[in-house]
Amino acid sequence: MDDLRAGLNEVDCDLLVIGGGTAGPMAAYRARKKNPDAKVILLEKANVKRSGAISMGMDGLNNAVIPGHSTPEQYTKEITIANDGIVDQAAVYKYAQNCYSIIEELDQFGIRFQKDENGEYDVKKVHHMGTYVLPMPNGDTVKKALYRQLRRARVLISNRFMATRLLTGKSGRAAGAIAVNTRTGEFLVIRAKAVIMCMGAAGRLGLPTSGYLFGTYENPTNSGEGYSMAYHAGAKLANLECFQINPLIKDYNGPACAYVAGPFGGYTANSKNERFIECDYWSGQMMQEFYNELQSGKGPVFLKLNHLHKDTADHIEQILHTVERPSRGRFHEQRGTKYSEQMIEMHISEIGFCSGHSASGVYVDEFARTTVPGLYAAGDMASVPHNYMLGAFTNGAIAGEHAIEFAEDVDFDVFDDAAISLEQERVLAPTKRDDGIPPNQIEYKIRRLVNDYLQPPKVTAKYELCQTRLAEVRHDMETQMMARDAHELMRSMEVASILDCADMAAFASLYRTESRWGLYHWRSDYPGSNDADWKCHVLLSQENGVMTCEKKDVAPYIIPIAEDEKDAYYKQRITAQA
Amino acid sequence: MPIANTPTTVPVVVDEDKCIADKGCTVCVDVCPLDVLRISDLTGKAYMKYDECWYCMPCEADCPTNAVTVNIPYLLR
């Protein structure tokens, strides 16, 4: 295994879905359900059984819009305000209208959602305004349940193939993708009538403070290929300057999850045991207060549960330690920390792109369509803000159904065969060198530069320095990166995506000359927000091989936001302590 | 430039007495999202070849003989 072999296979399908994590399986499944005659291929870099952000499962839904608890209108309003007004509401509204039927479908798959003594969904309030959080008692079975459905629907699964570039047809449509086997280096060319990208966050952008390259908040296999491939295919990417930064357990990269603890009475506190934010729901505005407290004399910041009854604290601990990131229990055991006894030190994560939590993603409309015809995106890499796991499922389903309909009406778009040999040459270049720099060192250098220069607060002069240094690293990558086997080849392709994402993060951030989304886009030399010039999307794309940005108007709101509501998420700080 | 091998302690530990990779089992290698486990040519048992772990634990959870233990990497402990 891992020895490099030469090889090139070609395969045709109606629909190619890239990424077998959360959105991808749902997209492929729904496409097959809608058109049982269609040939649907699900391509996965790892193994669909255990791939993606929910590899081990998920302890709850963060954004469930359930009749009787909340309405699609309320949810759309909340997310519009949480995301500082920069929201095309159609996609959020459509998600909110559809997600309940997805919950029912997941329920039929065998995934249970918590119900109260009356048999009603036991939805909890965590957000600033509405009630959307629903625990999943057997959340560790999600991937297994999905896999069963994929097998039943006879989706064709190709594991251990990493897509490296999309193919674009002569009429400008998505025409398929080129992939490389992560165990052999052999190529697979997939011709498709439509393509859905569900390739996750760009989670290996910043460097975790532990110094461990793979100790990231996101599953590190989500290294931003989706963002990079969409960019190279000419798609537009939205609001990349709206970084993802999350509150974490200090040193351990699991979410601190005041989410889970909040409904039981847990909260975020400073070192004086004081609560300092009203609402623990993750937003840039909340993260700004978190950051301010960390930097103040009242830092560090803690997850506080030790004021609760021991049974309650133990119950929360049990949820947090067994489902989404079960190694967390082991971490605390080693440290000798018990939630019922002491406050748990928290910290903030490295930066990344992830619309699942913030809003940085490949631009999509309410049908999950990107700006390239026949190319769709869903999940953490698509621009629907704050959409989390249920958003990945729901938008994956929307993408699958729309894309398979699209594929019924078109034939394969013809592409230039030269694209394949060019891509083979690019991918294999690191394997042709006997001497050079291993991918992990190039990766470390890029990510160290990201931390040194791109983490908020964003300073123009530091950003410009970073761009110069990243260009030097790009030169090293293109001329000296060396891969000795297929595994290192996979890593070197990931490094290329990480570098593309770092470049895009810098470029998009410099373009938006204001501050917005709290900490996510805090520019010290433009400290205020400027609605007159910047209450718009920033779309980044490639034009004639050069990175460019443009403004795009926010679509007229479907659900109006009152003047006295629009800043609700900026009123996070508890001002008076009793 | 010459390449050095820098020693590192790895988080995933396999109990070779329990591991049945020599009988054809590849479960832990298959389920790892980072693809860092391999079967040793020397011992026929599974081991962590690449220090690129997210300590997510499918390898441990899915192992049919409970041979795999995932520790927290030293840098985080």
From TrEMBL, chain B:
Coiled coil: none
Domain spans labelled 4Fe-4S ferredoxin-type: 10-42, 44-73
MF term (GO), any: iron-sulfur cluster binding
Protein name: 4Fe-4S ferredoxin, iron-sulfur binding protein
Keywords: Iron, Iron-sulfur, Metal-binding
Pfam families: Fer4_7
The keyword Iron appears for this protein: yes
Family matches, as InterPro entries: 4Fe4S_Fe-S-bd, 4Fe4S_Fe_S_CS
Superkingdom of source: Bacteria
